[in-house]
Amino acid sequence: MSAAGDLALGVRLSVAGGRSGWLRLTLIAAGVGFGVAMLLLMAAAPTASTNRQQRLADRAMGVTAERAGPGTLLALTTQTRFRDEAVRGRILRPEGDRAPVPPGVDRVPAAGEMVVSPALAALINGPGGAVLGDRWSARVVGVIGPRGLSGPDEVYFYVGSGTLTRDDGAARITSFGGGAAPVTDPAIVVLVVIGSVIMVLPVLVFVTTAVRFGSESRERQLAAVRLVGADAAMTRRIAAGDTLIGAVLGLGAGGLGFLGLRRVVGGLLPVDFSPYPSDLRPVPILLLLIVVLVPVGAVLVTLAALRRVVIEPLGVVRQSGARRRRIWWRLIPPAVGAALLYPLLDDPAGSEAQLAAGVVLLLIGVVVLLPWLVQAVVRGLGGGSVAWQLGIRRLQLDSDTAVRSVSGIAVSVAGIIAIQGILAASVAANNGVQPPDDRFQAVVYTNGADGTGWEAALVGTPGVRQVRTSGYAELRQDGDDQAGVTVRVGDCDTLRQYAPLPSCTDGDSFAGTMSGWYQTTVLPPGASVGVYGTDEKKPLSRWEVAAGLPVVEQYTSDAGPVAFLATPSALGIRGGLPVDAYLLRLDPADPDAIEHVRNTMIRLDPAAPLQLFGDDRVGNQFAGARQVAQACAVLLLLFIGASMLVNVTEQLRERRRLLAVLAAFGTPRRTLSAAVLYQVAVPATVGLLLSVIVGSSLSAVLLAATHGPVDLDWPVIAGITAAVAAMVVAVTAGSLPLLFRLLRTQELRSE
């Protein structure tokens, strides 16, 4: 019979295997199907990202023009917020009857009209949305189609204007498209890359584990095949056919699972990354690889597993024996990965492919190093109790099965530590640089615009209790006509919104610094400078830079850093300063006070920056992502725990005759249970230590590459360690019923 015929016979025997055979097929199909669904999602991620980037590029402003014409359009990009939602859009004014139309809409909205995304329409029509609907003084006349949005949950709009000019900052364009899509934050790219890796590698481990699901009836079936005349090679091919049908069914189940998952996966992602279900189409070459390699891999895994199994007419016997592993080739993947990541320390703008390759190779290094490391560790262990000796001796003879399941844990833990480190640093960085909100709650910047009438408009805004202004000035030395250093001018309460001051009274001044900012022009102590305001030719006063000025680290501000902060009396000025900031004290009893301020600013200047003090929205997003990552980590460890339980079960079944002999000679159940625990715990401990070292190193490298503080999150590492320890105990407890069943004297019977 040919090899194909042997595989076909294995398929027929598997289908006709009765309840036990169908149960085994179900387990294989479920395990492979889950893994295939995850692999298909990973394979669809590049297509979803490409489609999203293409839509963003298609709606970007295209070719600009200097003069108005029938085919020109004035467009001003603006952004606001409604509660915690970012609301982005453009103000449009056509200058002719052939003005370009943005993608996703049928026509350019006229003055007083606007078209919105479905998500924005839901906000306007939802609870409290009336204040948002009044922001643009326009009525909604349509909905933006999918071609004009990055994703289904994006909050976006186009509003028509009859007064927009280039003096407002608008661009005159003749087309849409051809521009570059917004650049993604490097930290987000790092999280996506590592998240994909730690999902794919454990899934591959689980798929290879799922095809190893076995049963006693299957072994009796294979022995019967040998009894009727099949040779060893033919029997292995028949066994591979048995697995092949399960893998094919798993492919189908995984495909159906993927079709269901892609309808809900968008709701699990941040708004800026949520895809349309139609975007999630696997890359053809990756789809082909999954469809081909999963069944082929299942067959190869089965054949590899049967290499050390002797199938005889009277039963199945497994060979054992220690193999000496070599380390030299195992050091190549982590060494190459480290070499790829090292340049990112000096140049974080390296390619995403380089980052992905470095992370993948470093995590693969955990997989290939672990078998050698476990063997090296257990080789030197000995002595101890009977249970310890039984467990360690088993690992010394054959640690392959134990390492297979532990490798998934090691890769996952290393990746989780790296992700948690980046998220923790992002939370700390965003929460640590926010100005206080006890005196003022928001600030509006003119951003170079004429702020005439702004103060009166803000004072008359509902929910605003007080408006205080802040100005700036330039400091120039005599004979220097170039732009000098800047100084932020305001009273002490105002200056405290820009930097944490040690103490402040009228007449004080401070030197300002900011992490990552370098002042090109430095004024030494004792320098005499002119203080220039709106009149750049005549100084308002003269100021001598005092020695020993207190140095303060400035908060992140939309106005940018300054070299000095000073009260007006310290500079000797009383007027003539350009006002660039209006600090607002809001009514705490009015939850929509800031929304009314945003409505006012849309009318005054839609492009004016508005900063909310104490704004922890970004920090909360990272904190929420951190919680999601922790939840995913728990689910991933449970997933791998199930894989480990399968491996432990396989080990117990392989040694059922030996276990029955030990029980017949009086070995207590407690001793054998402890031996099983040691067999699981020792490799898991070695793998956990390796993953902590690799994950911490990877976290430090990635934090340095993204200019974040290199500070490892030890509580998270301790929590992961405790979770793995609990999982090892749970796996041991889950294997005890089978262990106790295998200790019966019936297992000694031989035919």
List the keywords.
10-stranded mixed sheet; 50% helix; alpha+beta; 751 residues; 6-stranded mixed sheet; Membrane protein; membrane
Mean pLDDT score:
80
Helix content: 40-55%
> What general outline do the C-alpha atoms trace?
elongated
Q: Quick one: how many beta strands?
A: 18
End-to-end Cα distance, whole Å, is: 29 Å
Derived structural class:
alpha+beta
Query: What is the C-alpha radius of gyration, as a whole number of Å?
Result: 34 Å
Low-confidence segments, given as residue ranges, are none
Number of helices: 20
- β-sheet strand percentage: 5-15%
Q: Major β-sheet, in short? A: 10 strands, mixed
Write the layout of secondary structure elements.
Layout: H1 3-15, H2 18-59, E1 73-82, E2 85-94, E3 113-116, H3 118-125, H4 130-133, E4 139-143, E5 156-160, E6 171-173, H5 186-210, H6 216-227, H7 232-261, H8 284-305, E7 309-312, E8 315-318, H9 332-341, H10 352-379, H11 386-397, H12 400-432, E9 442-445, H13 454-459, E10 464-477, E11 485-489, H14 492-495, E12 509-513, E13 528-532, E14 541-544, E15 551-553, E16 564-566, H15 568-571, E17 579-586, H16 593-604, E18 610-612, H17 617-654, H18 656-664, H19 669-705, H20 714-742
Parallel strand pairs: 2-5, 3-4, 11-16, 12-15
Antiparallel strand pairs: 1-2, 1-6, 3-5, 7-8, 9-17, 9-18, 10-11, 10-13, 10-17, 12-16, 13-14
